[in-house]
């Protein structure tokens, strides 16, 4: 079965606003979820209050498989942040924020995993550069933008046939499965 990493934005949207429930259920059916050490750190850094701290600590304990960036990933992240930041005229603050996204994407690439994010725009830049699979937790907006050509869905191994949140698509088994 394919693997996926949930980005920090998905956890925050789900925990704080109750978003992405249907998407998360479908992701859990289609993927084995692996946990990024970068995401876990971001969640811990942002946890405010005892309930949030407890929730993040519980996730950390449940996350028995934790994927972390390698030294080479850190090295490559520096290049990505510099090049993409220069191309988009980003300031130092945006570059710092993007560093973690680059580390998450590079870790996903190393393991052949899909990144699921509610912050699709930054990960789209990384997808184009690293040729990784990225799915938007806000899939309705993304699907509407890409549905006519079916390019997005075919790039992510989907073909029309089965129901997924009202869209008619189905995950095609990978050749290695």
Attribute tags:
disordered C terminus, alpha/beta, 18% strand, 177 residues, two-stranded antiparallel sheet
Task: Provide structural commentary.
This protein is α/β, with parallel strands linked by helices. Helices cover 59% and strands 18% of the residues. The chain has helices at 8-17, 21-30, 37-46, 50-62, 71-88, 92-111, 120-130, 139-146, 151-155, and strands at 3-6, 32-36, 66-67, 114-117, 133-136, 158-164, 167-171. It has a five-stranded parallel beta sheet. The chain has a two-stranded antiparallel ribbon with strand order 6-7. β4, α7 (120-130) and β5 (133-136) form a beta-alpha-beta unit. The radius of gyration is 16 Å and the shape is globular. The N and C termini lie close together (6 Å).
Largest sheet: 5 strands, parallel
Number of strands: 7
Order of helices and strands: EHHEHHEHHEHEHHEE
Mean pLDDT: 84
The oligomeric status of these chains comes to single chain
Q: Indicate the overall shape.
A: globular
Radius of gyration (Å): 16 Å
User: Could you tell me how far the N terminus lies from the C terminus, measured between alpha carbons in angstroms?
Assistant: 6 Å
Q: What is the strand arrangement across the widest sheet?
A: 3-2-1-4-5
DSSP strand content: 15-25%
Helix fraction, binned, reads 55-70%
Count helical runs: 9
